[in-house]
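Final report, Chapter 2: Outcomes

The project's central promise was a pipeline that accepts a single protein chain and returns its three-dimensional structure in a standardized token representation, suitable for archiving and comparison. That pipeline is now operational. To close this chapter, we reproduce one record exactly as it appears in the project archive, with the input sequence first and the structure output second.
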Amino acid sequence: MTLQTFLNLIAACLGFLAALFFVIGVAHLRAADIKRIASSGYGGFSQNLADSFATQRAEYLSGAILLILSFMSQLAANVVDPSLQPPAIQPLEHAIRVIVALVVGLLVLAVILRYAVARCTKARVRALMAAESKSST
């Protein structure tokens, strides 16, 4: 193993771990936490603030998953035998098409995940607020 490969592997592992902590940190921001934070300001609960936090949570999760996939790919690139040349990515023009298709596919999946998580989180916050207002009346 060359020093360059060794350092690349260390960098990829550190990036992978950082991305994991990024995912774990934002994953712990639950609907109840968002409701509490959005209720702590002057004037009481702010639906706009809660929606903003829910959207940010969804974007962080989607971005972090892409970041993890990126570091996993970088790790694999440094571990795979450089002499391997799979026919599926030969010639270069075909490889470029495969790369574009994979990137676009992953982007579409990330956008779908982002919207689904945001919608689900917003619905949970609204349900918590409805339950609270129902119990207080």
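Archive annotation: Residues 29 and 57 are 7 Å apart (CA to CA).
This record, like all others produced under the grant, will remain available to the consortium after the project formally closes.
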